[in-house]
Amino acid sequence: MDMLQTSLDGLMIGSTYALLGLSFALVFGIMRRINLAFGACLLFGASLAIYLEPILGWGAWGLFLITIVGVALASAYVERLCFAPHSKRHGALTAMVASFAVWMQLDEISSQLLPQRTHAFQGLEVPNFWWGEIFVRGDQLLHFAIALVSILLLYLLLYKTRLGLLIRATADSPETAHLLGAQVPWLGFIIFLLAGILGGVAAFMILSADGYVTPLFGLWSTFKGLVAMIIGGVGSLMGAVLGGLILGLVETHAGAALGAEFRDMVTFGLVFLVLIIRPGGLMGVKIYRTDSLARDRV
Amino acid sequence: MLSVNNLVTSYGLIKALKGVSLEAKKGAVTCILGPNGAGKTTLMFTLAGILTPDTGTVNLLDQNLTGLGAPKILRKGLALVPENRLVFADLSVYENLLAGAFTQSRAMATQVSDDIEKMYDRFPILKDRHDQPAGNLSGGEQQMLALARALMSRPSILLMDEPSVGLSPIIVDEIFAIIKQLNEDGMSILLVEQNATKALQVADYFYLLDQGKVTFSGTPDQVKDDDIIKRAYLGGG
Fold it and tell me: Which residues contact B33 (CB under 8 A, 6 or more apart)?
């Protein structure tokens, strides 16, 4: 029964990692870019939400909303400042280094907004309950549902709309998309905005489950997102979801079996194994094609 | 119909096209022959708006296309089937066809689905494979898909850059039968080809492009009688 309880907890946490991984996979899979300032965007959104909360007094749902808007704004800002000017083939490294600099900037703004190291982060009030012998945290169940809905909405956007088809065609071959007149003006902006919204949802879920936010949250979420993407398959959206769930499961099981201090060690051991055995990640079968594409464009 | 006047295109300091003039007539198949490096693909890219010419003009049915950029040129009725096909490998066959109709407005949705049905009639293999990723198709099937995708924009002239490249002789025969059929249905075609023997079966008029210049132009009969072309392209002596 413990096994089942731990797995359930792992899945719940994994669903938030899946969202973090999806944000990275969106940006990498479509733009072939890595945004190092991603975690800092999350931290900024969360800090802004806590900073504004006493002024506006909207409660937990207000925090939710402001976090999402804040992260999306920061993400869009990073795109305009670091990625849009370097969208050409040779810009990948410049963009990445630029995003590193903005990471510092956003971190600094966040600590100006929240001068103390630890701030309480209010969660949604949902009653917990027992399901047979399994204890279910109400807020985590709600988070899981929100994650599923977010993933479903993203799927519908990418696979069932004209904009989604345009985005996927451009991701597949930007040159051919251009030839067919299938350009998306502001493509990078839209992708970063989407990644920001997903990241904002994830940030709220993680922080409200923990009940507090510290300045370390930014770096932590960058790691979790990157790891989820690497395990699942670099640039694959399905892979990122799978990678996030696996990461959640492995972490909670490692924590339960070996103790909390081994959690991160097991995680990075897993990344190490994946990189050796299947460098493209679980769903990254097309890594060689993707890789040549990336090299092409980089 | 399509008239190209004194077109010059360069890559940096290197002039790839040194003043090319040619004419593609309505309802005809016009063929450009030429060795590797002659500037054939550069010419195609310039006509389709991927490259911008330094000087010269491109006119299609009284519209000036010069330097408009690929999306606008496509909207004005000139579609290019690029060399090596370049289908969207991860997208399904159906989605590739939809992608070809991007220039059609949303209001045209029913017309677009009618067009897709027409493509399925013309290329039944695409219907059989409509939900498969285009990357899983064979070379010949990908060529058909690229051709159908270009037709989805309802062009008034179709440019094809070496449709026979990398395909087996049987498939090449099939592709040329399709080109002939398209032409008989009224499509104007500008074809770049190295396979002169096949091109002679479909084309009405020929240009020979060499080192960025048109060095010969004539009817199929004149091509067959020209000693240099015979030696270089038809394998005869």
Answer: B193, B194, B196, B199, B206, B207, B208, B209, B223, B229, B233
CATH of the domain at A99: 1.10.3470
Least CB–CB distance from B82: residue in A166, A179, A182: A179
Pairing relation of β-strands B78-81 and B157-161? parallel
Alpha helices in chain A (DSSP H): 2-31, 38-56, 59-78, 92-113, 138-160, 162-172, 174-179, 187-210, 217-232, 237-258, 263-277, 287-297
By Cβ distance, the residue of B70, B88, B90 closest to A181 is B70
- pLDDT, averaged across chain B: 87
* Domains in chain B with CATH codes: 1-38+47-77+157-237 (3.40.50.300), 89-154 (no CATH)
Report CB contact under 8 Å: B102, A172. no
Return d(Cα A63, Cα A247) in angstroms, integer. 26
For position B111, what pLDDT does the model report?
86
The alpha helices in A79-186, defined as continuous H runs, are 92-113, 138-160, 162-172, 174-179
Chain B nearest-CA distance from A165, in A, is: 7
Instruction: Report the residue from B72, B91, B103 with minimal CB separation from A172.
Output: B91
Give B100 to chain A, closest Cα distance, Å: 6
* pLDDT digits 0-9 by tens, B5-47: 888 888 888 888 888 889 899 989 999 988 888 888 899 999 9
Query: Which domain covers residue A132, as residue numbers?
Result: 2-297
Q: What is the pTM of this model?
A: 0.82
Gap between the Cα atoms of B51 and A27, Å rounded: 28
